[in-house]
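Training component of the fellowship. As part of building independent skills, the fellow (R.M.) carried out the full modelling exercise for a liganded target. The chosen ligand was fe (iii) ion. The inputs are recorded below so that the supervisory panel can assess the work.
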Amino acid sequence: MKNLIIKNASQVVTCSGFAGKRGREMNDLHVIEGGTVVVTDGRISHVLRAGEPLPVDEAGYTVIDATGKALLPGFVDPHTHFVFGGYREEEFSWRMRGDSYMEIMNRGGGIVNTTKATREASEDELFEVGRRRLDAMLRLGITTVEGKSGYGLDRDTEMKQLRVMRRLNEAHPADIVSTFMGAHATPAEWKGREDAFIDFNIREMFPLVAKEGLAEFADIFCEKDVFTIEQSRRYLQAAREQGFKLKIHADEIVQFGGAELAGELHCASADHLLQASDAGIRAMADAGVVATLLPLTAFSLRETFARGREMIDAGCMVALATDLNPGSSFSASVPLLFALACIYMKLSPEEAVTAFTINSAAAIDRADRIGSIDVGKQGDLVLLQFPSYKFLPYHVGMNIVDTVIKQGEVVVK
Ligand code: NIG
Ligand code: FE
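Fellow's submitted model of the complex:
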């Protein structure tokens, strides 16, 4: 039954809006104390203040008493690489010994290591590990997940990864938004011919992925020793011409001009941004690019955190994501994400909630459908074990999710 009433929540944290929020607006959560939310046929049909009469007959609905619990929109994770073969626990030990992420990548480990395992894995094996990871994310309150290819780096494996995500979108309660990331790294067979590898993606992969309707976004790892600004511009412009919306991994390890490029191209989002320059931050604010920050990655790599506070103060639309992947952030820990965003990136709890709901929906161009508790939106909701959203960063590292609802159905209890 997709009809549901959640009654008397201590807070209905609506995050109300049909577009992402910038700058100071990120503090406006539009909280209704003692509110009730009605989901009819999978969509939010009523958001009621305390004491307002129920406009529907309870008989046709599942009713949840949310006394003492805060209700939020389902979390939206707008940047992950959750479909991959193998693991890289050895590289973690090397990093703890002092090797850097890029040193490991430059000597043939890193992304291409996972590429080998992903090429070897069968489609069903990838489906199975993907499903388990989505289950874990759903238990943490994530109801929509963006996922990237980019561990194939050849035609068949990129297509295999994207097909797995399409199948998971159909088979799993979570919604999956797919991104083609053919330019994630240069595989051994193209090493030294990066321009030709970009051409291969533009001429062969974009048309194929577009024809099969397997991805909505295209993404590239724009970084020193990976892909240059010129290569990234060429790849992204061609992607747009072939119908993809644009994302970019920008300024993760060194300051490289990726945020500026995102502004120039009006990308939907620029992600990572640990080293984004002042000019890059301004460019993103001016162009309305969502700045998607990945604190679990900065933490796992022991890097400096992105300047979240400054980006918001500069008027950026800031989103948060887990970046779940086997290398730089093997975590989808929503609790740790909230804690790091507040403690180290200096977001207020309100800004962090906005960043992982309506703004992360904007990062995947879904702010009209998900990311807030507004009439007409999908009935994707998270009920917490505590009376306030403020417990999300405060109860450090603890999963405080009570119930998860996807399109009006209880999927985690
Ligand atoms: O977003 N930086 C590039 N891509 C991923 C890491 C991928 C990997 O190491 O496997 C990221 O951090
Ligand atoms: Fe990433």
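The panel noted the following from the submitted structure. The two ends are 15 Å apart (CA to CA). The mean pLDDT is 98.
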